[in-house]
Amino acid sequence: xSEPASLSTPPRRVILVLALACGVSxxxxxxxxxxxxxxxxxxxxxxxxxxxxxxxxxxxxxxGIFLLVPLGDRLxxxxxxxxLLALTAAGLVLAGAAPTLPVLVTxxxxxxxxxxxxxxxxxxxxxxxxxxxxxxxxxxxxxxxIGGILLARTFGGTLGEWLGRRAPYLVAAALVLALAVTxxxxxxxxxxxxxxxxxxxxxxxxxxxxxxxDLRRSCLYQATVFAGFSAAWTALTLLVTGPAYGMGAQTVGxxxxxxxxxxxxxxxxxxxADRRGPDTVSLWCLLGVIGSAGVxxxxxxxxxxxxxxxxxxxxxxxxxxxxxxxxxxxRNFALRPDARARVNTAYMTCAFLGGSAGSWLGVRAxxxxxxxxxxxxxxxxxxxxxxxxxxxxxxxxxxxxxxVEGAVPPSRVP
Length: 414
Hints:
single chain, mainly alpha, two-stranded antiparallel ribbon, 17 helices, disordered C terminus
């Protein structure tokens, strides 16, 4: 895949604006997690039904990654980014004004589809800078992305508690629209890197999944652990606002801040993947997710001690999942340097399908088994990935141990 051309390397202020755009865009599918109880109260529906808003946003995001992100290779990036931001703002306004659950769920799905802007910005920016700056620029954009995920729940929970469930949607719409106007002026002109037909662009990720076993492994790891991650965060609102704690949505937002440590841990995970390999980091992270489930299981007791345990368990879960993402992408981007955007499309689609399923399963697990059912789901998701990972490691060791027929033993090599 050829690199998109640019008239000049964008200055640092443009990179920072792009990082902000990544964070604000992705926040639109995460802040509803903190206000599902407020949605239920406002629309007079059960809490489990309100959680469909979160599930719809994540399913929409997965669909947007598969259907729209490949267009980043086919259309001028500035036009595509600004158009998607404008559509996201329109969806947020509709969600804020939605009078019924079906309208809100539909608007949430539409927001998810169009909020895939970060997955277009990151590969675009990588093609606009010299190779020696690519790592630093990508790291800045990923920090903005993670910051948006972390602050989204705080933003949604706090604003929703003060002004009602509609306020986060309407304020987010104004922010996204302001970003669209700004990016229309600052994003450099680019030349599309591909002339392939849209159908060919869509089929490429499926072909890569079929041809690359390591990509399939990465997709399995992230889809399963992200399912547990989404289940925990979706059910967290039900736990904190329920009888065990009896707190408001603002508390959920504050708990979202505990994941800030993952912004500092992901660079460490990247360096560890460079030194020890992605598979070693994946092993650590999967064990970390299982450990977080054990900690979170104690949080159902309630009280101050339970709240501290809950914060610690969610912190460990966030760090493990985000660091595992770094390891998976390090593995993925080494596979096809000429098709990294399409590799990323395949990977992120699988990840968010897993996250969407996790949101749905988390509410059902909480409704039938309470918080222990949710923590069991988190542990099970990681155990499934860990079993596959250990099988891969064992097979790799056996392959290395079996001598190749006709090979000269090391001691006889001249």
